[in-house]
Write a structure and sequence with these properties.
Layout: H1 3-19, H2 23-27, H3 34-40, E1 48-52, H4 58-66, E2 71-76, H5 79-91, E3 98-102, H6 110-114, E4 119-125, H7 134-142, E5 145-156, H8 164-175, H9 185-195, E6 199-205, E7 210-216
Parallel strand pairs: 1-2, 1-4, 2-3, 4-5
Antiparallel strand pairs: 5-7, 6-7
Helix pairs in contact: 3-4, 7-9
Length: 221
């Protein structure tokens, strides 16, 4: 890792060293839309799914239940979060279905980490708002897709249909945790889609509270 990578890893470990113990209990109230996106992933039979910045493994546990024939993988830059992910997978009896590794979202190598060079589905759930080089992350992830693969991203939206006081309060609170909603997500996703000769779709959830995008890489004809 570069010095910047080490700095970000240290920051994440500092933030989540204690928070990881109650992360899932609190985040369910405001990390909205995760379950809907997981269901829409539609991982193929015996396919592969990677979650980048998998955190506590919460989404991977649900994904393993939704797609029992799939092979699931998770990476995170935080050792502390990976401790919780491993514990949650053990507790739910899903540790044999999911492989975890420490990695940087901007430059990971699936072949080295998991012996998997490309993936059918990749998920970034409330992660791009915390990754400094988030545009690089999206582009790198898109290039890790198999032909016909899909990259799904869900994160905080621009709150357009919600009161200004709510948006200001939410954004102010998020800044305390180094979280920055990405207003340019749709533009970046469409640009990245072109680099893989694919398409990008965009939508919002809960009156703009959350936004999501899917980049689809074309199949080989």
């Amino acid at each position: 890792m570069s010095n910047a990578d080490h700095s970000h890893a240290s920051l994440m470990d500092t933030i989540y060293g204690k928070q990881r113990y109650f992360y899932d209990a609190t985040r369910k109230f405001y990390l909205l839309g995760r379950d809907q996106i997981l269901q829409r992933l539609a991982v193929p039979q015996s396919g592969t799914m990677l979650e980048i910045a998998c955190g506590t493994g919460r989404n991977l546990c649900l994904g393993a239940k939704l797609y029992p024939t799939a092979k699931l993988y998770g990476l995170d830059i935080s050792e502390e979060m990976l401790k919780s992910a491993k514990a949650n997978l053990q507790r739910t009896g899903l540790h044999d279905k999911v492989q975890l590794a420490k990695g940087d979202a901007t430059n990971f190598d699936g072949a080295t980490l998991f012996d998997v060079s490309k993936f059918d589905r990749i998920l970034l759930s409330y992660a791009v708002s915390m990754i400094p080089d988030w545009e690089v992350t999206i582009e790198h992830a898109a290039h890790q897709l198999k032909p016909g693969g899909e990259l799904w991203i869900v994160d905080f939206g621009n709150q357009t249909k919600l009161p200004n006081w709510f948006k200001n309060a939410l954004y102010g609170w998020l800044r305390k945790f180094h979280v920055q909603p990405r207003q340019e997500l749709e533009t970046v996703a469409r640009r990245v889609a072109r680099t893989v000769h694919g398409t990008a779709e965009f939508g919002t959830l809960y009156r703009g509270y959350a936004q999501f995008t899917v980049i689809k890489k074309p199949s080989i004809s």
